[in-house]
Design a protein that fits this description.
The protein is mostly helical and 302 residues long. 81% of the residues lie in helices and 0% in strands.
Length: 302
């Protein structure tokens, strides 16, 4: 890409490819918890998309990419603890993506992009202790999914997105101490993830998603005093976690958190501690892991 840029000067296609490579670098860095590297790569990509959009304001591809890059920036700011900028960029991303959907309502790519943006905003709100507002964003995402999947039920993208968002809504219901709705959401998500595994058994994210749901269900069972059911659910979660082979690559942060949560729910604080330390070094600890750590007597801030 650099050779193409040097040879072609201000070639828009080469610059767009360069931006997409930077976005891939940013998303990988975010996945493993290197938020500073993610911010640097995302800044480079955003600058390119902003320049390309200013030169060709009618180019929907550039507008969509800029909106996606902006939502990624919001997420990175949130993980870095910069809640003010996280909210600012999230609002910008939502506005841009909603404009794209209004311009082309039948465009499935834009609808999927808006669904992801609503889900990311819901995650941010829930982690910031605004579960009611989070549920509103998850409901907006699910309305899009229900409409699109009804129009074309053969599209697996909507079923997979539904599993993730229903799982996220279960977490928000737990925050509101609505155990019945939380359990229902996690059980529905487990069923959806199981169908997803059948259709794409090589996709590790489905096993991780199902494991995380079973961990939440195990926690509910523990709190209700049903130790046998909790142990059964922890066994199911552990079986899915054992399938996660990243072929020598660095383990994603959410997998580290899930492993730590599994160990804490099993009462193995000593084994969980190194994993908790790793998440602490990134500057971000998931709400559920933080809660379990505090319950186990661990000072996650100290």
């Amino acid at each position: 890409v650099e050779r193409a840029l040097n040879a072609g000067g201000e070639d828009s296609r080469a610059r767009a490819v360069h931006a997409r490579l930077l976005e891939m670098r940013a998303r990988y860095a975010e996945m493993i918890g290197d938020f500073d590297a993610a911010a640097e790569a995302n800044q480079g990509a955003s600058d390119i998309w902003r320049t390309l959009t200013s030169r060709d304001a009618s180019n929907a591809e550039f507008q969509s990419a800029l909106a996606s890059s902006t939502s990624l920036r919001a997420g990175i700011h949130f993980f870095q603890g910069d809640t003010r900028n996280a909210e600012f960029y999230m609002r910008s991303a939502l506005r841009m993506t909603e404009d794209l959907v209004r311009s082309e309502p039948a465009n499935i790519t834009y609808q999927a992009q808006l669904t992801r943006t609503y889900a990311l905003d819901g995650f941010r709100l829930r982690q910031s202790d605004f579960p009611d507002e989070a549920l509103s964003q998850f409901d907006r995402a699910l309305r899009i999914i229900n409409y699109q999947s009804h129009d074309d039920p053969s599209l697996k993208i909507w079923e997979h997105a539904r599993a993730e968002i229903i799982s996220l809504s279960g977490n928000a219901h737990l925050d509101l101490e609505d155990t019945m709705r939380a359990r229902g959401a996690f059980e529905e998500a487990v069923s959806l993830y199981s169908r997803a595994v059948e259709s794409d058994p090589e996709n590790l994210s489905f096993y991780l998603g199902r494991a995380r749901c079973n961990l939440r269900l195990a926690r509910i069972s523990q709190e209700e005093g049903d130790g046998n059911r909790a142990e059964e659910l922890l066994g199911l979660a552990e079986a899915d976690m054992e399938r996660l082979d990243y072929a020598g690559q660095q383990m994603p942060l959410e997998t580290v958190s899930a492993n730590a949560l599994l160990l804490l729910l099993r009462g193995d604080v000593q084994a969980a501690w190194p994993l908790i330390q790793r998440t602490r070094r990134t500057g971000f600890i998931e709400k559920d892991l933080r809660r379990a750590a505090v319950s186990a007597g661990i000072d996650v801030e100290g």
